[in-house]
Each structure stands twice: as C-alpha cells, then as structure tokens.
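Feature request, filed as a ticket because there's no other form

It would be nice if the structure record came with a short human-readable summary line next to the tokens. Right now we just get the raw output. Example of a typical job, pasted below so the devs can see what we mean:
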Amino acid sequence: MDSIGNWNADSGIAASVSGVRSMHILLIEDEPELGAYIVRRLGESGHRVDYAARGDTGLGLVSEGNYDLLIVDRMLPGVDGLSLVKSLRKRQPNLPVLFLSNLGGLDDRVEGLNSGGDDYLVKPFSMDELEARVEALSRLARLPIGWPDCAVAPMTIW
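Raw output as currently delivered:
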C-alpha cells in the first residue's frame, strides 16, 4: 500500500482472476491492520483498491474517483459511515455499497440498509464471505438500470 492508500497486485493494472470481474473499490475502514489485509486480499483477487481511514477522506475520494463499489465501516472518524452513504446516495444513487461493521444487531443492520447500503457484513467476518459478497455486488452492478428508452409506432393488432 502506498502513502495514499492505493494497492494493486499487478503494478497498477487490474486483472481478472478466476473469472471475477475486476472492480475499482474504495475501502473506508479506520482499523489499519484490517484495512491493509482487506486491500491485500481484494488486490490478489484482481481488484484495484483505494483505501481511506477516515470518513471525510473517503467522501473526498468518492467525489474525485470513479468507483465500482464502496466498502464502508459504520464507525469512522471525520464522517460516520451512515452519514457518508446518505450523502453519497444524493449524488451517486447506483454505486453499490457494502457496510462492514462491528454493529451487528438487527436494528443496526436494518439502519445501515435503510440508509443506502446494499449489503451489510458484521465483524468479525470470513474473508471468503467478503469476497463472495463483492462478487455478488459486481453482478448486480452489471444489470441495466431502469427501462431502456424505446418508442413503438402506433399499431393495430387483429
């Protein structure tokens, strides 16, 4: 990981590993050891991962970058994860967000999803499960959004 929090397994070139679509991911996590581990593992899976340890820093990176997925801790310094995602949804309503949090009660998970999260994973977690959820969100991100524009001329059906 460099000083800005960028890491990639292949010198800056995101590659597909095991058929998984390579994604540009922003991880916003205030636990540095956990953040480094997640960045390393997702990078080894072929994803390009940027890292921020503070919510306000992460919000700035989202504004500047073009991300396919956000992984956001709920309890962050600067701007908490819920506020970050609520703000993000006003500008980028279709960007997939996975919450990663120690707050694992039913009300906490529902609040995270209702605030704009697309998925919610409680710490401690299995890295295999996180990678599977990233892949699932990748599949959803490829689906067309809304109905395509089309026009049909008037017709008569007999």
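Something like this underneath would help us a lot:
The radius of gyration is 17 Å.
The mean pLDDT is 84.
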